Amino acid sequence: MLKLGKLAIIGVTLSILLLMVTSCGGNITQNEPGSSGQAGSIDVSQGSGEKSGPWEVTILGGSVGGVWAAITEGVAESVRRTAPPGSNITAEPGKDGPNSIMVAKKEAELAISYSPTAYTALKGIDPYQEAYPGIRAVAVLNPNSTFHFLVLKNTGLTSIEDLKAKKYPLRISVNKQGSTMELVSKAVLKAYGISYQDIESWGGKVYFLSTKETMEAIDNGQVQAHSITGEHPVSHFVEAAMRREFALLPISSEAINKVNQELGTRAGIIPGGTYSFAPEDVPTCAASLLLVTGAEQPEDFIYNITKALNDNLDYLRTVHAILKDINPKTMADTSPIPLHPGAEKYYKEIGALK
After folding, report:
1. Of 84, 138, 179, 79, the residue nearest 290 (C-alpha)
2. What is the spatial distance between Cα 63 and Cα 94, in angstroms, rounded to a whole number?
3. Which residues in 75-129 belong to E strands, given as ranges?
4. Which whole-number Å values give the CA distances from 302 to 137, 139, 201, in the listed order?
5. Smallest Cα–Cα separation from 69: which of 27, 28, 112, 26?
6. What DSSP line would sit under 213-230, residue for residue?
7. CA pair distance 343, 332, nearest whole angstrom
8. What residues contact 7, with CB distance under 8 A and at least 6 apart?
9. Does 16 have pLDDT greater than 50?
């Protein structure tokens, strides 16, 4: 009887084990991707060109603590709000010049860039040694990054033609070499037939300083002028005007056209009254602040990124004054940088693009 009892226990145990194995096998079968490319509730399709499951997204901005850092974090937060569960959306420091190249080479998914920098990289125009045809736009974040040619009033200069005619020995900072600010500065001077070498041959000096460094150099008498492309009003100029008298030099229509052809910029205006020292409208050229990506990023992924931005416009407008007027129509106007197909698809769906 004891032996029969033991055999009965062993039989029951084996039956339970067999049932457990069968159940586990059933679960494995249910979780294998079927014809829909899904595993449970998560899309794990492979080779479909889609960015499935949680996203790993790096968004490159500017220097830590700067305006671009705030904007980049705002974009990142907008994406986080609609990204799949478990996604990692990271805003990281970057630089205007390299940012576009990084997304073209798939070293980052998204980045902020000015349109002239993205355009010259796309075409392989100086300072880029090769073309990066894979640069694509997702959205215009601000369409009014205007070129400013700021001079101390005591120089007596009222125009860039005046600078050339007088061969004035101007000490000017054109911002960091290779930045959009420097690219546009160089192109504007070139449109008037002026080179850096000309300025130095007249006894002047060309510096490559950031705006913060430049305003300090103006205060100590080292620099007399600064050229910059940025969203107006430039806070450094507003603050400096409390201590010094300045003038903004206008750009002629002929020069604007030349710069636009070279850098893909467009005609713009710095409205009168933007600065206390410029009561009248100042004609100039303008660039756009862009969110860019690489052409190889999946269409559905960029579609969803674009949708996330549009779904969070009220939030984005609170992130920084630069974004206060952001709207779908201006976001879609990324020329001369081609839109990514995913972004284009979304803008057409909502009627922002024909």
Report:
1. 138
2. 6
3. 88-92, 110-114
4. 10, 11, 50
5. 112
6. HHHHHHHTTS--EEEEEE
7. 8
8. none
9. no
- Neighbouring residues of 54: CB distance < 8 A, sequence distance ≥ 6: 83, 84, 85, 86, 87, 88
Q: What are phi and psi of 66, to 5 degrees?
A: -85, 180
**Buried-exposed string 266-298: b where 16+ CB fall within 10 A, e elsewhere:** bebebeeebbebbeeebbbbbbbbbbbbbbebb
349/226 Cα distance (integer angstroms) = 43
How far, in Å, CA of 283 to CA of 100, rounded? 28
* Helix orientation angle between 299-311 and 341-349, rounded to the nearest 10 degrees: 50
CA 322 to chain CA centroid, Å, is 13
pLDDT of residue 61 exceeding 70: yes
Q: Does the pLDDT value for residue 245 go beyond 90?
A: yes
DSSP state of 105: T
The Cα-based distances of 104 to 100, 110, 132, 134, 326 in angstroms read: 6, 10, 6, 5, 25
| Domains detected in the chain | 56-142+289-349 (3.40.190.10), 145-288 (3.40.190.10)
The pLDDT confidence band at residue 38, using thresholds 50, 70 and 90, is very low
DSSP state of 116: H
How distant is the alpha carbon of residue 298 from its chain centre?
19
Among 247, 196, 244, which residue's Cα sits nearest to residue 218? Answer: 244
Q: Which residues touch 100 (CB under 8 Å, ≥6 apart)?
A: 111, 113, 117, 118, 121, 122, 132, 135, 292
The string of pLDDT tens digits covering residues 90-141 is 999 998 889 999 999 999 999 999 999 999 999 999 889 999 999 999 999 9
Judge whether 104 and 294 are in contact, CB under 8 Å. yes
C-alpha dihedral sign at 181, 185, 186, 190: positive
